[in-house]
Amino acid sequence: MKLKEGMFAVKLYELEQQYGRMQSRLQICQQDDHKKIRQELQKAADEYKENELLLKSNVESSRSLAVAALAEAQLKYSQRVKNILEEEMPEYLYSETGTKEGKMAEAAGLYAEYAIDFAVQSMKYALMAALKAIDAQMNADDKEQAQDGKSA
Questions:
Q1: What is the pTM of this model?
Q2: Is residue 69 classed as helix, strand or coil in its secondary structure?
Q3: What is the separation of C-alpha 126 from the centre of its chain, rounded to a whole number of angstroms?
Q4: pLDDT digits over 9-55, tens only?
Q5: Long-range contacts, 63-70 (Cβ 8 Å, 24+)
Q6: Residues 92 and 107 sit within 8 Å (Cβ to Cβ)
Q7: What is the pLDDT confidence band of residue 94, given thresholds at 50, 70 and 90?
Q8: Which of 14, 60, 75, 82 could form a disulfide with 55, with the two C-beta atoms 3.0–4.6 Å apart?
């Protein structure tokens, strides 16, 4: 893919759309009633499960070893974090003071903050990966131009 074609334009557009949807959903949900929050939570959980199935499919059937390895790493991370949130976090809370509900709310808030921090870190890593890809493409283009210059 050539640089002029905007190697990452589609992915950046997808990222922007996802961020916009997340931001809107959070803003709306913070003003909604409890029933609506639970509906949105179920919807988000369903979307998460769909993505997890897609990752599993990529691990099992990808023709690219690199794609399979990356999908497997995402899947392992996803499963580990889910385990912490759903199974281990309640155990961590029993040793802390305060009401069980209050501790769960605080822990869930901290978890959400960490997830957002991780998303920011992922964006920084994505930037580095994109810059490496652009650099590699430029190196290939430079080499091709140099070879074309020698043969002319």
A1: 0.68
A2: helix
A3: 10
A4: 888 899 999 999 989 988 888 887 888 888 888 998 899 899 889 88
A5: none
A6: yes
A7: low
A8: 75
